């Protein structure tokens, strides 16, 4: 699980049992001390104990996907997943075939549109600070971040439920509605 996402998951009360990067993975069934693991990884570029490979994640009852597009979870790989949920923590971490298979099996897929926006949100908050010459504390930034993420998750889930659709469809529908409304209010720019 990506570092920032793992920290956010832990703050939401979820037990983080695995983390992964392009260089390996770490797993502990009873949970990981995320702050400690992250600090060690940032200092050394490695995990203390690389106990699992990515292929070992497939039979787990949970999963977070952090692969690059050209190594995304495809249809055949998806058949090995025994998770109740897949969080696509990288852009295009799932191929359309892989996602269709997982959804067909009733596995909840949280799309990259929802899980991968943290960096963009942090950049936006930085831009707002700079533009307005605000000087927010780290705690103020974290609170704003948490509030925005919670709102996005709630809105996407509500839209998906209203459409009787998956979360990616809910996220895309919500995005298109917002673009349409912005165009209606502002007009089309030359």
Q: Your description of this structure?
A:
53% of the residues lie in helices and 9% in strands. The protein has a domain at 117-190. It is mainly alpha-helical. The longest helix is centred in the C-terminal third of the chain and has 25 residues, at 138-162. The chain has a three-stranded parallel beta sheet. The chain is built from nine helices and five strands; from the N terminus they run H-E-E-H-H-E-H-E-H-E-H-H-H-H.
The value of Rg in angstroms is 18 Å
In helices, the fraction of residues equals 40-55%
> Could you name the ranges where pLDDT drops below 50 across 5 or more consecutive residues?
none
The strand order across the widest sheet is: 3-4-5
How many β-strands, per DSSP? 5
Secondary-structure element order, N to C:
HEEHHEHEHEHHHH
**How far is the N terminus from the C terminus?**
42 Å
Structural class: mainly alpha
Mean pLDDT: 78
Query: Which sheet architecture does the biggest sheet show?
Result: 3 strands, parallel
Number of helices: 9
Which percent range describes the beta-strand content?
A: 5-15%
CA-based shape: globular
Protein traits:
190 residues; mainly alpha; 3-stranded parallel sheet; two-stranded antiparallel sheet; 9 helices; 5 strands
Short description:
This protein is mainly alpha-helical and about 190 residues long. The protein is built from nine helices and five strands, in the order H-E-E-H-H-E-H-E-H-E-H-H-H-H.
List the helices and strands and how they pair.
Elements: H1 3-11, E1 18-21, E2 24-27, H2 34-44, H3 54-57, E3 63-65, H4 75-78, E4 85-88, H5 96-104, E5 108-110, H6 112-115, H7 118-132, H8 138-162, H9 167-186
Parallel strand pairs: 3-4, 4-5
Antiparallel strand pairs: 1-2
Helix pairs in contact: 7-8, 8-9
